[in-house]
Amino acid sequence: MAHSIITVATMKGGSGKSTLASCLAVHWQLKGSRAAIIDSDPQRTIARLATREKALGGVQVTEDATEDAFKAAQRLVGDYEKVIIDTPGFRSQATLACLGVSDFVLVPVKPSPFDVDRMLDTLNILINGVSGRRPIFRCVLTQTTRESVIAKHIRSELAEAGFPVLDSEMTNRVVYAEAALWGGTPSLIDKSGPAAREIAAIADEVEQICESMIQVRRAASA
Ligand SMILES: Nc1ncnc2c1ncn2[C@@H]1O[C@H](COP(=O)(O)OP(=O)(O)OP(=O)(O)O)[C@@H](O)[C@H]1O
Ligand SMILES: [Mg+2]
After folding, report:
1. Cα 187 to the center of its chain, rounded Å
2. Alpha carbon distance 100, 134 (integer Å)
3. How far apart are CA 48 and CA 50, in angstroms?
4. Edge-to-edge strand order for the sheet containing 136-144?
5. What are the boundaries of each domain within the chain?
6. Does the beta carbon of 142 lie inside 6 Å of ligand 1?
7. Contact 94, 66 (CB under 8 A)
8. How far is the CA of 17 from the centre of ligand 2 (A)?
9. Angle at 49 between CA 72 and CA 208, to 5 degrees
10. What CATH superfamily is the domain 4-221?
11. 173-208 pLDDT, tens per residue?
């Protein structure tokens, strides 16, 4: 896959951004792609994880909570195939600038009307474009209970409103927090378990979308 900058963003706090960002980075690193995370959140969630025993499986972590975080991503994307930016749960110039340089944006959303309302602010920014360009984005349902009525409802509401949602979901599992205790993710501590498999499914879907976008761009410029 071509080198890419992937930003995980939503202005709703606690929706699972840092968990998703760390899980994807570790998954890709284990698959043999060099992965880096920019921690642009002043809370330093990812930077702290990286100081624990499993150190996110050797994923490169760069802390930059300044308005220049996007520049750090642009610098790293030459050396790393996947540069993932974890953003804070509030609106900031730094996040807007990161969205502006991203090849792909993931918007995690918990299946609850409160979370969806707050997340719409993020989606409106994406749809209206940042720095004159509209990044490719997908919502991803997080902390879901399989087959729950509310998750199905939110999924169809988002789709009807024109917000694309990944087929794969990140379900509610205690292993995400348990793995984080050791600075790890499910792919590191139980690589064939259900959580590692759902992360792999999300990662594959993201790669497929990025690949097809690259082909569309190539065809357009040919
Ligand atoms: N799929 C999941 N299953 C169970 N717990 C989860 C899952 N995803 C995240 N969590 C837990 O939910 C809490 C919030 O997750 P996380 O810190 O990733 O959210 P965030 O969007 O980065 O928050 P913030 O906006 O504060 O940065 C954490 O305690 C995390 O362990
Ligand atoms: Mg976070």
Report:
1. 16
2. 8
3. 5
4. 60-63, 35-39, 82-86, 4-8, 104-109, 136-144, 170-171
5. 4-221
6. yes
7. yes
8. 5
9. 60
10. P-loop containing nucleotide triphosphate hydrolases (3.40.50.300)
11. 999 999 999 999 999 999 999 999 999 999 999 999
Bridge partners of residue 8, in order along the sequence: 86, 106
- pTM recorded for the entire structure: 0.95
Angle at 120 between CA 172 and CA 43, to 5 degrees: 60
Task: Identify which ligand lies nearest to the alpha carbon of 186.
Answer: 1
Atom of ligand 1 nearest to the CA of 88: 27
Distance CA 23, CA 15 (A): 14
Q: Which of 202, 211, 175, 177 is nearest to 191 (CA)?
A: 175
Neighbours of 153 (CB within 10 A): 12
pLDDT at 213 over 90: no
